[in-house]
Amino acid sequence: MNAFKFSALGILMVVLLGCKKDTQEPTPADNGMFSLQSTGVTNGVLAAKYTCDGQSYAPPLSWANAPTRTKQFAITMHHIPPTGDKHVYYLLYNIPSTITSLPENNTTLGLFGINTVNGKNTYTPPCSQGPGAKIYVLTVYALSEQPVISVAPSKLTMDILTEAMSKITLAKSELSVSYTRP
Q: What's the Cα-to-Cα distance from 11 to each of 14, 15, 21, 124, rounded to whole Å?
């Protein structure tokens, strides 16, 4: 009888250990590394075309190897200057999982949150002041579902969006780029 109890307990433990809880925590992509690229970046430098010194276009972006459970994507672009306050240039969400790239100067795919430069629901180009190169971080998020947003798009900040995505982010990929104003 004791051998039976031990065997049943062993089987139960194997079954329980084999069950994986779906925690929605960030995981690596199923088919390789989730990655973000841009043809608007050469050797880590953002082309002037995508800044206030050029045409002020949003850079083209593409991503690959999203986790298989991805239902939507979101994109952010920000910079943290020495003053410590975050500058947000691009905030885009509700991008369907069938989309794996954004064209240059995208204005139609996804929904825009507000940037911190002029408070509008658009891409605003980097235009950092002061000498030297500045670093900007583009991030793509693979989401397991649509984020629940409790504010109007005209009030949606990066902090509100990242909080709404915190429990549904399957993976994210960052692309750090630099730009030096002439």
A: 5, 6, 18, 58
| Per-residue pLDDT tens digits for 58-98 | 999 999 999 999 999 999 999 988 888 899 999 999 999 99
- Residues 101-115 pLDDT 10s: 999 999 999 999 999
CATH 3.90.280.10 is right for the domain spanning 24-179:
yes
Whole-angstrom distance, CA of residue 81 vs CA of residue 127: 12
Count of residues in the chain: 182
Residue 89: half-sphere exposure toward Cβ, Cα within 13 Å: 22
Distances (CA, A) of 81 to 15, 127, 169: 51, 12, 26
Name residue, tokens 């306050």. 85
Domain residue ranges in the chain = 24-179
Distance of alpha carbon 27 from the chain centroid: 14
Residue with tokens 């975050």: 86
